[in-house]
């Protein structure tokens, strides 16, 4: 029984870790855009001025504020609001990742100066390297690159079809043919010479 429980816990932790990694990868463009906003300059300066332990305590804020999103999303899903629950979960997780990742980028060196944090971060990096070295992860990465290129080609074809003022699906699925001109001799009931 204990062996089954350990396997289940490991599987759930691996799935949770992979979902977090995927959501983080999706949030990167938003992070870059927000990092360049002038609004965050004063907040950035304040965070950089903090010491290591106050910065570590600052990490608790997004987690405490946004962790209740999961039970709310579960409640919405359980009461039949599947799309609403999914949207709440995705937006809450993306916002949490956005805040935590930005905080970490701003204060990585200060946080690593804390021995316990440095040890945890080292273990996290080892786990991340282990996951990246798995064949399943590499296969998934290859598939995601292929999917990305397929979507880019699809969008490019769509834009090209829009510029040419053709319906996209028709241009893609049905080849354009010249209409066949009816010939008087080929019509049924037409008179033929001879």
Tell me what you see in this structure.
It is a single chain. It is built from 9 helices and no strands. It is mainly alpha-helical. Helix 1 (about 1-35) crosses helix 6, helix 3 (about 50-60) runs antiparallel to helix 6 and helix 5 packs antiparallel against helix 6. The radius of gyration is 28 Å and the shape is globular. It has helices spanning about 1-35, 40-50, 50-60, 60-65, 70-80, 80-110, 115-135, 135-165, 170-175. Helix content is about 80%, strand content about 0%.
| Overall pLDDT metric | 76
The biggest sheet, with number of strands, parallel, antiparallel or mixed sense and barrel status, is: none
What is the percent of helical residues? over 70%
Q: Using DSSP, what is the number of strands?
A: 0
**Helical run tally:** 9
The secondary-structure class comes to mainly alpha
How far from one another are the termini? 95 Å
In one word, what is the shape? globular
* Amount of beta strand: under 5%
Q: In sequence order, what are the helices and strands, one letter per element?
A: HHHHHHHHH
How big is the Rg?
28 Å
Poorly predicted regions are none
